[in-house]
Amino acid sequence: MGLRRTSEERQRAHEGDNRTAHLRIAAEYRDQILSGDIEAGEDLPSTGDMCKEFGASTTAVQNAMRALKEEGLVVGHRGKGITVREHRMTAMRPAAYFAPVEPGEPYRWIAEAQRRGMTAESELLQVAEVVPPLSVAKALGIASDGTAVLRRQLLKLNGEPAELVESYYPIEIAAGTAITERKKVKGGVPTLLAGMGYPFHRAVDRVSARTPTADQGVYLKMPVGELPVLRTFRTVYSADDRVIEVTVMAKAGHLYELEYEVASDQLGG
Questions:
Q1: Which residue from 8, 161, 194, 195 has the least number of CB within 10 angstroms?
Q2: Helix (H, G, I), strand (E, B) or coil at 180
Q3: What confidence tens digit (pLDDT) does each residue in 108-160 have?
Q4: Residue 125 and residue 109: Cα distance in Å, rounded?
């Protein structure tokens, strides 16, 4: 089926859009599919109909459909056109991951994934004392040439890469602890920090969409094209409002979304 907007509405929307035709076509259908406005199992219009609908060439339409196929959103059937695949964005719930765990319990994010019927695992990529990016150094309150302990890992859901995570910890807190060891921290870092007298108090997230870096593209298996990553810059504070962790997370923007819940008692007056 076609897009749920009239040709006139779409033409107005495209005024001033300097992207090439195939990028505009892919963006239109991607948005409709990810939003659920075009459902799994529905057939997209023929190449000829898309050419008329967008005033585009056959090559532009074919390139747009090729991009959507690479992203796993549609599938082509020889001689039968293109069909939308079963696809649902996975919502990540950051608030579910902060609390320390009891002895013997799985990490919070693993337990959350299991609760939702998914398998979860992590791959520890790097543990090192490094000079962090300037934005991280400022958040940690250290000099631009100061160092912090970096723990870098790749989180996976159902065996597929979900999030590239880079967590930085102040040297004076991490030194001499399991945070500096190249192995998983028993119970997770929040549990360790709470036991050291640095319980989680609050966190501030700044979320943006960015073009993936080379590392992000490789680790997250991002398809070639214009798709962004969702980047979360998180500053974690302890009970005395001391910064105990700064984490930079990246996830594929076409596969994941963030879900936040705000209660009435959290609203300012």
A1: 8
A2: helix
A3: 777 777 887 888 899 999 999 999 999 999 999 999 999 999 999 999 988 88
A4: 18
- The DSSP call for residue 260 is -
Whether this model's pTM surpasses 0.90: no
Question: Would you say 69 and 33 are in contact if contact means Cβ atoms under 8 Å apart?
Answer: no
* pLDDT for the residue numbered 1: 47
The three-state secondary structure class of 179 is helix
Q: What is the C-alpha separation between 251 and 203, in angstroms, rounded?
A: 19
- At residue 227, φ and ψ (nearest 5 deg) are -65, 140
Whole-angstrom Cα Rg for the chain: 22
Q: Amino acid identity of 34?
A: L
CA distances from 48 to 28, 44, 180, 245 (A): 17, 11, 59, 54
Phi, psi values for residue 185, rounded to 5° = -85, 125
Rounded Cα distance between 37 and 40, Å, is: 10
